[in-house]
Amino acid sequence: MSGLLLRLAGPVQAWGERGVFHRRDTSAFPTRSALIGMFAAAQGRTREHALDPYPHLPGRPDHRDLTITIRIDQPGTRYRDFHTVGGGYGPRNALRTGNGTYRPEKESTLVSHRDYLIDACFTVAVEGPAPLIAHIAETLEQPRFGLFLGRRSCLPDEPLVLRHHTPDPIHELKTAAPLTRNAPPRDDTPIPVTFVWEHPPPHATNPDQPDREATSEPIDLTTGARRHLPRPLWLTTEPLPAGLHTGPRPLDALAAYKLGAPA
């Protein structure tokens, strides 16, 4: 087993769980489904083949062999966008219905509400078979399709991949990976940071009772046939060293960690 570290940050993010066209929500942190979709996009996989196994890798691993742990560096602020499509155009430019005809003028404008996270930052540990982890890291650095933080309008900041390979990414999250947040620590007091686990951590108070359940286990990512199963999640608060805070110039600390900090 091996692991890699990702940093998911950008002006806006959106991690939908139960969204439909007229009401598109966002989770408070990245979903498993969205991350697996991002890995598939980096590899040039279409939606129809996003969840296929990897026959060219030893043991034919697939996405179910991955375990994802999320550190919420900065939760961000929720923002709701009032979005319209199709309004103000003439009859021949109106939206079409499912059978190909044009919508009547009174029904030509579709309204939706779309939620986003503003100024959020997450550091994510992805663990799994070493060949699969190496393949994911390599393709994320040189993606074939565009990478997004949940929606196409949400582009990721650099660096995206913090560590290509680490034998203990959870230890890195707790002791070494730079922590990006706006509020600096006041002194050397440990910083309380929320972690999201897909399996109960060793120190969980109630390992048999998850803190929440997310509909984020992808079964089919094909357009029009997307299906997900629920997955239990455990949330803990971990005290991190104040020295992990990146300070006023996050890119300096992130570059130093990515290029030269010891594993």
Protein architecture, described:
By secondary structure, the protein is α+β, with helices and mostly antiparallel strands. Helices cover 15% and strands 31% of the residues. The chain contains four helices and eleven strands, in the order βββαββββαβαβββα. It has helices at 32-42, 130-141, 169-175, 250-259; strands spanning 2-9, 12-13, 23-24, 67-74, 77-85, 110-118, 121-128, 161-166, 191-197, 212-220, 227-240. Strands 8-1-7-4-9-11-10 form a seven-stranded antiparallel beta sheet, sandwiched between helices. Strands 2, 3, 5 and 6 form a four-stranded mixed beta sheet that branches. The model has no long low-confidence stretch (mean pLDDT 89).
Please name the CATH architecture of the largest domain.
2-Layer Sandwich
What does the average pLDDT come to?
A: 89
What's the number of extended β-strand segments?
11
Radius of gyration: 20 Å
* Sheet with most strands: strand arrangement: 8-1-7-4-9-11-10
Biggest sheet, in brief?
7 strands, antiparallel
The helix/strand class is alpha+beta
CATH class of the largest domain: Alpha Beta
The count of helical stretches stands at 4
Elements, N to C (H/E): EEEHEEEEHEHEEEH
Report helical residue fraction. Answer: 10-25%
Q: What is the count of distinct domains?
A: 2
